[in-house]
Amino acid sequence: MRNLNMRRFWSLLKWEITTQRHHLLGFTVGSMIFYLIIGLLIWLLLPSFDPRPMNSILTTMDDSLTSLSIGATVLLPSFLLSRVNKKGILTQYLMLPASRIEKFVARYLMVVVGYMVCWVVGYFVMDVLQYLLTLLIAPDQAVFSAPVVNAAIHGGKFPAWISFLLCLWFWCHSVFLWGGVFFRKHPFIFTSLSFSLISLIVILSVHYLCLAFDVPYASFEQFVFGHAMTNLLLLAFAVFNFIAAYRRFTRIQVTNPQLFNK
Questions:
Q1: Sign of the CA dihedral with 31 first, then 37, 40, and 46 last
Q2: Pick from 84, 89, 109, 71: which is nearest to 181 by CA?
Q3: Which of 64, 230, 80, 81 is CA-nearest to residue 152?
Q4: Residue 14 and residue 16: Cα distance in Å, rounded?
Q5: Residue 217: Cβ within 10 Å count
Q6: Structural contact between residues 111 and 80, judged by C-beta atoms closer than 8 angstroms
Q7: Which one in 142, 148, 155, 250 has a CA-CA gap of 20 to 30 Å to 36?
Q8: Are 110 and 13 in contact (CB under 8 A)?
Q9: pTM of the model
Q10: How confident is the model over 78-128, as pLDDT tens digits?
Q11: What residues pair up with 183 in beta bridges, in sequence order?
């Protein structure tokens, strides 16, 4: 089966959610606990002589969680096959009555979108809990985080090179997706190491090219961030990684003891 049948796809996605509901619930609860710990640490680490109001604490926490959330959306694809990469489970998964493209898209939605939804749900549940807790400790400072986030978004200005950052994020996301399919064992670790090595090579290459051609690094940086060709190249590499990840996924073998999926 090579085609994409929506009815069959939704059945597969429902099966994915049903079989992994305990992992999703555990991730949601874990994210809530993590948020609460981050909030408590920020509150405890504030100097006692400079007690900031609750909305300042929430703004500081939101900044940290926003950075973590962006990082999570980049790293999550490396866990694409983490739950089905064992021999018995992988055999069962590959035997499901669905095409490879349906399985690939279902796994992607489950791992990336599904866990990010749990992350957001955990955040809002934590927000309610912190509001109730603050209501007991300091009623005059009780405030929901959502209005603080909303004010921060509408009050701030997006940088001019936001398009470059979005394209860069998409490319990084695609690299970890490719690594999640390519590496059979410890995909997150090996993808992170490979990504770090590639980044180091690129940075050093740019540095020595600027020195060789006597180009100020600031001028090169401005050219890269502001040039549409850079964005197009990043998008092209990202699309290539998605296609390569899918093609590798369609050729996965059950009996493969090596580091790489063949």
A1: negative
A2: 84
A3: 64
A4: 5
A5: 11
A6: yes
A7: 155
A8: yes
A9: 0.75
A10: 888 877 766 667 777 778 888 888 888 888 998 888 888 888 888 788 777
A11: 260
| Residue pointed to by tokens 């600031």 | 218
In the block, residue with structure tokens 């090996």: 190
Q: SS3 string of the chain?
A: CCCCCHHHHHHHHHHHHHHCHHHHHHHHHHHHHHHHHHHHHHHHHCCCCCCCCHHHHHHHHHHHHHHHHHHHHHHHHHHCCCCCCCHHHHHHHHCCCCCHHHHHHHHHHHHHHHHHHHHHHHHHHHHHHHHHHHHHHCHHHCCCHHHHHHHHHHHCCCCCCHHHHHHHHHHHHHHHHHHHHHECCCHHHHHHHHHHHHHHHHHHHHHHHHHHCCCCHHHHHHHHHHCHHHHHHHHHHHHHHHHHHHHHHHCCCCCCCCCECC
